[in-house]
Design a protein that fits this description.
The complex is a heterodimer of chains A (261) and B (222). In chain A, 67% of the residues lie in helices and 15% in strands. Chain A is of the alpha+beta class. Classes of the chains: A alpha+beta (261), B mainly alpha (222). Chain B: Keywords: Membrane, Transmembrane, Transmembrane helix.
């Protein structure tokens, strides 16, 4: 006879086995649930991203529509009024003493009409982008050169325009305007170099300045980093990339690339 | 010398050495204290074998060790729960309750046997604590990669060990009475505890390695 009966050994072994299998099942279940949680979080994050992009898209469309309306009103209403003023001024028959002043006023009105047309074209992005992005940027830079002393260098290396991608070009043009506006307001630069490049599948915009530069982390944390954040988001909206390299005292280099097929 | 190298001692020494390598430079005192605890485990086990070899009952050494075991595991659970805003009163209350039961059992047995009821009670509490930890993980909105989460693997080891030892603890007196006359290393209790020890220290060793890589990764990303 054995000292410890086989039944008891069997019972204890069985109980221990069950008591070991049960926690293993619990551990497996917790791990499985955790994986499901990760999937759920990923889905949630993706939905949030999609929602943010949709919101950004709507904001962009509303902004574009507003600018379009202002540009049309400027061109049609104020432009018409100025044209009428110019015609009225030219029809005045004055003596030689007043003629000079009236002619000078007429010339000023003609200049105002030209400036107004240029401004309304810049505001109306679709109109400006009709030819291509390079043309729109060159037009904007002409406007910039007039009012400021920046040394501007622009290189257009684009090969072809794809009409179906005009919306993308328009967004890229608005990004360019935002970057230029940031340089004027904050950089304190004297030289701006712009280039647009095209490959088989991408269109890239690069803007360099020799301004005071900044520490990127500080800028992103500060509230005035919203501009950069928006540029980055808009680039993402087009499935593009946005990179920024800034050195304090040397300048900033911004590169935006978007798919262009 | 081979007497001292059983499956138990090899598992414990291996875990101690892994802990020593992986946790020596750890900033957390709790994790570092695993080294001291595992050293105590190795000393206890060696002392237990020494007494057994010299035909002396070794229950006293394991009885004293049980207090440190409870302290270590309870403190670990307290630090896990602390993240979920649990108060230190909980740890003090549990330790006080444990001491009362532990001392009462020792007193009633006139310090002449291992406090198996206390061990069973402690096991049940640790099993509940482990299950509660899983509940907290499930309820937590943050995601953690559990396959490399050190705390999760420490708790896995605890759950497997204490849940698995319940049957042996419940039948402890019966098993001890019937072990007389057979070789200690052939008893079912010894075999089961060997298996449980291997599981516990394997889980803990893996947790220490995960902790080591986690620390290396966080220091290199700074």
């Amino acid at each position: 006879m054995q000292i410890l009966s086989k039944e008891v050994i069997f019972l204890i072994t069985l109980t221990t086995s069950i008591f070991l299998i049960a926690p293993i099942f619990i551990i497996v279940y917790v791990s499985y649930y955790n994986k499901k949680k990760a999937k759920h979080l990923e889905e949630k994050e993706s939905l949030k991203k999609t929602f943010e992009l949709e919101l950004l898209k709507s904001q962009f469309e509303v902004q574009e529509h507003t600018m379009e309306t202002i540009a049309t009103n400027l061109h049609d209403n104020i432009g018409q009024l100025l044209s009428l003023t110019s015609i009225t001024l030219s029809s005045i028959k004055a003596d030689s003493a007043q003629e000079g002043k009236i002619n000078a006023a007429g010339e000023l009105v003609v200049r105002a009409i030209q400036e107004l047309r240029q401004l309304s074209r810049i505001m109306s992005g679709k109109e400006l982008i009709r030819k291509n992005l390079g043309h729109a940027i060159a037009f904007e830079l002409d406007w910039l050169k007039k009012g400021t002393d920046y040394q501007v260098q622009f290189t257009d290396n684009t090969i072809r325009t794809i009409p179906q991608n005009s919306d993308k070009e328009l967004i890229l043009f608005r990004l360019f305007q935002e970057i230029i506006s940031n340089i004027i307001r904050h950089a304190g630069a004297t030289k701006i170099t712009i280039s647009i490049d095209q490959t088989d599948s991408t269109l890239s915009l690069q803007v360099k300045d020799n301004g005071k530069g900044f520490v990127l982390e500080d800028k992103l944390q500060a509230s005035d980093g919203m501009g950069l954040f928006n540029i980055s988001k808009r680039a993402k909206m087009m499935d593009g990339t946005f990179s920024i390299h800034s050195v304090t005292g040397v300048g900033t280099d911004i590169l935006v690339s978007i798919p262009y097929i | 010398m081979p007497l001292y190298l059983s499956i138990n001692t090899i598992a414990e020494i291996t875990c101690f050495l892994i802990g020593l390598i992986c946790l020596f430079q750890d900033k957390s005192l709790l994790w570092k204290s695993f080294i001291a605890y595992l050293f105590l485990v190795c000393i206890t086990e060696t002392g237990g074998i020494y007494l057994r070899v010299h035909h002396t009952r070794n229950y006293l050494i394991y009885t004293i060790y049980m207090f440190f075991e409870c302290l270590m595991v309870s403190t670990f659970f307290y630090y896990i729960y602390k993240r979920y805003h649990h108060k230190i009163k909980l740890l003090y209350s549990w330790m006080a309750l444990f001491l009362v039961i532990y001392l009462m059992e020792l007193y009633t047995s006139h310090f002449k046997s291992f406090p198996s009821f206390t061990a069973t009670f402690m096991s049940v509490v640790f099993v509940v604590a482990s299950l509660y930890f899983y509940l907290l993980i499930i309820k937590d909105e943050r995601f953690r990669q559990l396959s490399t989460y050190p705390t999760f693997w420490i708790v896995n080891g605890i759950l497997l060990y204490y849940f698995g030892s319940t049957a042996c603890n419940v039948f402890y007196d019966y098993l001890v009475q019937n072990e007389n006359g057979i070789k200690a290393t052939l008893s079912i209790r010894y075999i089961i505890f060997n298996l449980l020890n291997v599981l516990l220290y394997a889980c803990w060793s893996y947790a220490f390695i995960c902790r080591y890589y986690q620390r290396k990764l966080s220091s290199s990303s700074r």
